[in-house]
Specification:
heterodimer; A: 310 residues; alpha/beta; Alpha-Beta Plaits; 10 strands; globular; B: 346 residues; Isopropylmalate Dehydrogenase
Chain lengths: 310, 346
């Protein structure tokens, strides 16, 4: 069985989507639709930059969503529809557009506000994130408990074994660097992010986004979408939205998401959208799985070959 | 492991289509090269070999040739083309699939001849009496399957029930919908509206156990109220062609507006974008073609003016249906005959 997985923030780059847009009308049309929905030239930002504008969270989120949905629509038009969907953080919105839970126009507008609310939840510089390499999940949890000292500090992305991102106040994350090393972490890398995503500091953003998300028209996903917060299959619109709300301040349990897909029988994972971050993570989580990504026409052909052989 | 098994071979009617064999061979070569799909090219072997020789890597690709000296031309009546029992490319392609040399076939040739060749060569699936061509159309909520769009122009009510079963199985694979909602194309939404055919088909669908959403008026075809829209082949073909014609006409009208006032120009340009997007999505010919459902073989029908890219896409879709064991899914979906109560003769 095949799952489509959609990337989150961090996979953006200037020029994303351009190669496929040049060749496929449906990709171009999708970028044009995003421009119309936002009433802003998002497509030009994706294709030409400038990069500093693309890196603003409220631009990055709709940009990655659009680049991902555009590739998905192309695959769909070519008859390639998988049995399952999932996405990393923001990518969960892309997954729900692909599954038909959310309309693309609604999604592109809500992720722009999601980006803005998450940015505004914490003053710039007050929060931080860091990748902890080489420690298991329970050890990272102990590190967070020890280094918190009353501040917010928790695992934010459980990406793969030995690859966990923590988030919290700047002071707590700074303390965690030495605590993690004392517990045997191979490396602790501060991440260049503008806010501490997926931790309790995001509660104000969650409170602002929740009523807006719940007001969107939704349908039941046509195929199950595995949620970040609990790694459960979402089969109805209401629980899908609930998971998107909780995700703002909840950890992205990506390793659990991939394991859940594997337990459902998925053997092939296709990363739909810019970059190959999730492809790399899947290979770490499920060594025997087949993982592909689509950047250009060759990647597209690779995925189509997978569907052609079943 | 099973995921890395090889693709199944696809028979391609090299002589079918307006630009045959050039575009067809180029598309088949692209499918073999880019998608690693083994291909069986069917047509006059001398011509095909000569054409293949132009691709420098042809020898490295998994392409076989089956000789068929003749072809059905676009002007011929379908039945006449078959009755003569000529070794036409479509006929040889069907035979190759039946003999197990290929798993599915793609043809962009004469639609009537392809339907007849598949109907006589493959035979019908148990419990299905007539074939149906299934078109994928864009809707406000994604896409839907419309069938029949021209394989069976005269239908009885039971045929429409069978089309619903076939279209439903196809929608699961093509649209990814787990339990497709079925609508019956008619005039008026109430059960008593329509003609003898749709009223009786309504009754059959209602008691079939399928997720039937009732009658669908033509204006609801594109709203997405149903995932599978069932009608006879005459109605379906008219519906499809009217849609194509309307989009072209509106586009032409909008183009004329572009010479009007500044405000009209802006409005027309925006509307034109929306229409262009719609047309890109409605153009199923470019994206794989329409499967002929109900016959006991996987058969994809491409548009006569298929480009090489469209042929590659058609071969890919044929391979996808074959790999998905599509035929077995359809067979599993068809209730054991007799399928439901037979309607009274009329």
């Amino acid at each position: 069985m095949i799952a489509f997985i959609f990337p989150g923030q961090g996979s953006q780059r200037v020029g994303m989507g351009q190669a496929l847009a040049d060749e496929h009308p449906i990709v171009r049309d999708t970028f044009a639709e995003a421009d119309e929905a936002l009433d802003a030239p998002l497509s030009r930002l994706c294709f030409e930059g400038p990069e500093d504008q693309l890196l603003l969270t409220e631009n990055t989120q709709p940009a990655i969503l659009t680049a991902s949905v555009a590739v998905f629509r192309l695959l769909e038009q070519l008859g390639c529809v998988p049995q399952f969907f999932a996405g990393h953080s923001l990518g969960e919105y892309s997954a729900h557009v692909a599954a038909g839970t959310l309309s693309f126009a609604d999604a592109v507008r809500i992720v722009r506000r999601r980006g803005r609310y998450m940015q505004e939840a914490v003053p710039v510089g007050a929060g931080a994130m860091a990748a902890v390499l080489g420690l298991e999940r329970d050890v990272v949890e102990r590190v967070c408990a020890e280094a918190a000292e009353g501040d917010v500090l928790s695992p934010a992305n459980l990406n793969a074994p030995g690859q966990i991102v923590i988030a919290g106040t700047k002071a707590a994350v700074d303390r965690a660097v030495s605590v993690a090393k004392a517990h045997g972490a191979k490396r602790v890398l501060p991440l260049a992010v503008s806010a501490p995503f997926h931790c309790a500091l995001m509660k104000p953003a969650e409170a602002r986004l929740a009523p807006e998300l719940r007001a969107l028209p939704v349908r039941d996903p046509r195929r199950p979408v595995v949620a970040n917060v609990d790694a459960e299959l979402k089969r109805d619109g209401a629980s899908a939205i609930d998971a998107l709300v909780r995700q703002v301040s909840g950890a992205v349990r990506w390793e659990d998401v991939v394991r859940r897909l594997a337990s459902e029988g998925v053997r092939t994972y296709v990363e739909v959208g810019p970059g190959a971050v999730l492809t790399g993570l899947v290979r770490k989580i499920e060594r025997d799985a087949e993982a592909l990504n689509i950047e250009d026409a060759r990647g597209l052909d690779g995925v189509r070959a997978v569907f052609a052989r079943g | 492991m099973e995921a890395r098994s090889r693709s199944l071979r696809i028979a391609v009617d090299a002589m079918g289509g307006d630009a045959a064999p050039d575009c067809i061979v180029d598309g088949a070569v692209a499918a073999a090269r880019d998608l690693a799909i083994p291909v069986l090219l069917v047509g006059p072997s001398d011509r095909l070999r000569a054409h293949l020789a132009r691709a420098s890597d042809a020898a490295d690709l998994d392409i076989e040739i089956a000789d068929a000296p003749e072809a059905v031309t676009m002007g011929e009546p379908a039945m006449a083309a078959l009755r003569k029992l000529r070794p036409t490319s479509i006929r040889v392609a069907v035979d190759a699939v039946r003999a197990g040399r290929a798993a599915a076939l793609f043809s962009a040739g004469h639609t009537g001849a392809t339907v007849m060749a598949a109907f006589t060569g493959f035979g019908m699936l148990d419990g299905i009496d007539r074939p149906a061509l299934a078109a994928t159309i864009p809707t406000q909520q994604g896409a839907a399957v419309l069938l029949d769009v021209g394989a069976t122009v005269e239908c009885r009510p039971l045929h429409l029930l069978q089309f619903a079963i076939l279209g439903s199985a196809y929608a699961v694979t093509a649209l990814g919908v787990e339990r497709p909602r079925i609508g019956l194309l008619s005039i008026g939404e109430e059960a008593v509206k329509g003609n003898d055919l749709t009223r009786e088909a309504y009754r059959l669908l209602e008691s079939s156990g399928l997720p039937f959403t009732g009658n669908l008026e033509a204006r609801d075809v594109y709203t997405g109220r149903a995932d599978v829209i069932v009608c006879d082949g005459f109605t379906g073909n008219v519906a499809l062609k009217i849609s194509e014609g309307l989009v072209e006409a509106v586009e032409a009208l909008l183009a004329a507006e572009l010479t009007g006032s500044a405000a009209a120009r802006v409005g027309a340009r925006l509307a034109r974008g929306a229409f262009r997007r719609f047309r890109h999505r409605v153009d199923y010919s470019e994206y794989g073609g329409a499967p002929l459902l109900g016959v006991a073989g996987v058969c994809l029908v491409g548009h006569g003016r298929s480009s090489a890219k469209a042929v590659k896409n058609g071969v890919a879709l044929a391979a996808r249906l074959a790999a998905d064991d599509f035929l077995a899914r359809v067979v599993a979906a068809v209730p054991a005959p007799p399928a439901g109560p037979r309607p009274a003769a009329h």
